[in-house]
Specification:
Length: about 160
């Protein structure tokens, strides 16, 4: 099986997910909701690469970059945190309040990140941001300046 560098990079992201769960188990640190969403994005990318849907992988990477930026913002700039939404709270919500409650919660998603271990979170998020950006640059679909070169040569 001859894999491209981009495919190996994406499959390596699957190994990152496994290492994240191993890290959680060994350190007994519970990941925040944004950390779990990042793992879902990495796992989704692996599945999409297996299905040869490279454009979906790139879309997931863009979403991952946006989530990393949100995560970094929360750790660096947001001093107040409300924490993660427990699933059991959803059971007692009236249906009329549910949409507004969920929107408020999503705006606060991950605000508990970095409370106990900010340096560790910043290191992991910096590496994850680099992973996404390098992955996009390794893709054959993302070429810096290729759009402009094609327009110049076609005219």
């Amino acid at each position: 099986m001859n894999l491209s560098l981009f495919q190996r990079w994406v499959y390596g992201g699957g190994a990152l997910v496994l290492m994240g769960f191993l890290f959680d188990f060994l350190t007994q640190i519970e990941p925040c909701s944004l950390c779990l969403i990042q793992r879902i994005i990495l796992g989704f990318s692996v599945v999409m690469m297996f299905l040869q849907a490279e454009i979906m992988v790139l879309s997931a990477y863009v979403l991952g970059i946006l989530l990393v930026m949100r995560h970094l913002y929360i750790i660096i700039f947001a001093p107040k945190a409300i924490g993660c939404l427990p699933i059991s709270m959803l059971n007692g919500l009236p249906y009329a309040v549910y949409p507004q409650f969920i929107l408020n919660w999503l705006s606060q998603l991950g605000t508990q990140c970095g409370v106990a271990h900010p340096k560790l979170d910043l290191m992991f998020l910096g590496l994850l941001l680099a992973y996404y950006v390098i992955g996009m640059l390794l893709s054959k679909r993302v070429k810096i300046g290729s759009i402009f070169n094609e327009r110049i040569h076609s005219s």
